UniProtKB/TrEMBL annotation:
Gene3D superfamilies linked: Medium-chain alcohol dehydrogenases, catalytic domain, NAD(P)-binding Rossmann-like Domain
Keyword match Lipid metabolism: no
Taxonomy of the source species: Eukaryota, Viridiplantae, Streptophyta, Embryophyta, Tracheophyta
Residue ranges of domain Enoyl reductase (ER) in the record: 68-429
Keyword Repressor annotated: no
Keywords, in A-Z order: Metal-binding, NAD, Oxidoreductase, Zinc
Molecular function GO terms recorded: oxidoreductase activity; zinc ion binding
Stated family: Belongs to the zinc-containing alcohol dehydrogenase family.
Top-rank lineage group of the source organism: Eukaryota
PANTHER family in alphabetical order: GROES-LIKE ZINC-BINDING ALCOHOL DEHYDROGENASE FAMILY PROTEIN, NAD-DEPENDENT ALCOHOL DEHYDROGENASE
Protein name (record): Enoyl reductase (ER) domain-containing protein
Cofactors: Zn(2+)
Length: 432
């Protein structure tokens, strides 16, 4: 409480000082001697909300901006973003290269622009927003190594209150619909013009990003920043699909259609959950070969043979208990639903071009009790700490999952390579 009162007093004093400055600035004879004093005062007082931090932060940062579909990302300078209550400012260390961002870049999924994409990050907490809860500051002290989930739960809506962070109303209403955080405002403003720039999740393709604290978990020293970034989306999405949607049990048979970053993570999670037959389906022999490292017991190249027939052959004519579609295509949607046994679960996690429709045999769905389930991600507050522990103990192998790294300046090239199918598994952009 005392810190909050001091901060309010400092801000009030500074606001009055700034108002006086607007008058003094009209008198050139006294403007220059005061300039250094004002700059010094700003650098000492504007950082460090409740809980500390902010000292020594630069006045601006760089971020990769998406301007319009099918145009390259450009690196621009931004005013330093500031966290508000319940948020943390993170010095970004790494950001994953995900197909969700690529869908936006290609105009397949509409999103506000200009924007900073990137939603799979690791970094260091450098500041808390003013009036943040003391428990949040205690859990995430300044200097903490952290990983952020792409679904950033508000913690207060009807779904979050029931533990369903993956359905957070504020996340979908504000971030995905408007490109803002939960007060309806972005935290990103271009340095040269002050123009607002929207945020896809936390806008992780930048040197600093603001994240709601509910979407952040502590990363142990034993896990490296770059490879751990994929825990916040690729692994997080796979875990949500396997644990909550499919509810995979030991001995279940599982087919994963599409073995990119998310699909290959599904293979590792299925193995960790004790699945028996784990069938990887793809059109790329190199991806299928690596799928065996991730836990696949069988591989199917769907460009060379019928994947449905092959899955039934492998499972003795029954089909799998769980099939996962990780591509977001109408053809693979159908393959997924047709690959499961009676009473089986077809889980859809691949995003498709806006307006895409999938077909399902209604009579088979009804008579054979087929379950078609959508799954967008995990539950940040409950699941992210579990995933970190799986990686820390080696049950989930980050070294196998991350196949390539790029520099921040190569961000656009990373997504070009992803679009051209040159990335096996998951790639990560190292930022700082």
């Amino acid at each position: 409480m005392a810190l909050a009162m001091v901060r309010r007093n400092v801000i009030t004093h500074y606001s009055k000082f700034a108002s006086s400055w607007s008058v003094l600035s009209r008198h050139s004879s006294i403007q220059e001697p005061l300039l250094a004093s004002v700059s010094s005062f700003h650098s000492q007082s504007v950082g460090g909300g409740s809980g500390g931090g902010g000292g020594g932060l630069p006045s601006y940062m760089r971020g990769a901006v998406f301007w319009e579909p099918n145009k390259p990302l450009s690196i621009e300078e931004f005013n330093m973003p500031r966290p508000k209550a319940g948020e943390v400012l993170i010095k970004t260390k790494a950001c994953g290269v995900c197909h969700s961002d690529l869908h936006v870049m290609k105009g397949e999924i509409p999103f506000s622009s200009p924007s900073v994409l990137g939603h799979e990050i690791t970094g260091e907490v450098v500041e808390h927003g003013a009036l943040s809860d003391s428990k949040t500051i205690e859990r995430l002290p300044v200097g903490s190594r952290v990983v952020g989930s792409f679904i950033m739960p508000c913690g207060n809506c009807s779904y979050c209150s029931k533990g369903h962070d993956d359905l957070c109303e504020a996340f979908f209403a504000y971030n995905r619909a408007k490109g803002t955080l939960y007060d309806g405002e972005t935290r990103l403003f271009l340095r040269n013009s002050g123009k607002p720039v929207f945020m896809y999740s936390m806008g992780g393709l930048a040197e600093y990003c603001v994240v709601p604290a509910n979407g952040v978990s502590v990363l142990p020293e034993s896990l490296p920043y770059p490879k751990s970034a994929i825990l916040g989306c690729a692994v997080f999405t796979a875990y949500g699909a396997m644990a909550h949607a499919a509810q995979v049990r030991p001995g279940d048979s599982v087919a994963v259609i599409g073995t990119g970053g998310v699909g290959s993570s599904c293979l590792q999670i299925a193995r960790a959950f004790g699945a028996s037959d784990i069938i990887a389906v793809d059109v790329n022999d190199e991806k299928l070969q690596k799928a065996k490292i991730f836990g696949a017991t069988h591989t199917v190249n769907s460009a060379k043979e019928d994947p449905i027939e092959k899955i039934y052959e492998i499972t003795g004519g029954k089909g799998v208990d769980v099939a996962v579609e990780a591509l977001g295509k109408t053809q693979t949607f159908a393959q997924c639903t047709l690959s499961v046994k009676d009473g089986g679960k077809a889980v859809m996690i691949g995003l498709a071009q806006a307006g895409s429709l999938g077909e399902v045999d209604i009579n088979r769905l009804v008579r054979r009790k087929i379950q078609v389930i959508g799954s967008y991600g995990g539950r940040a507050r409950q699941d992210l700490p579990k995933l970190i522990r799986l990686a820390e103990t080696g049950i989930f192998n980050l070294d196998h999952a991350v196949s390539r790294t790029y520099t921040f300046e190569e961000a656009d090239k990373a997504f070009q390579d992803l679009n051209e199918g040159k990335i096996i598994g998951r790639a990560v952009i190292e930022i700082m």
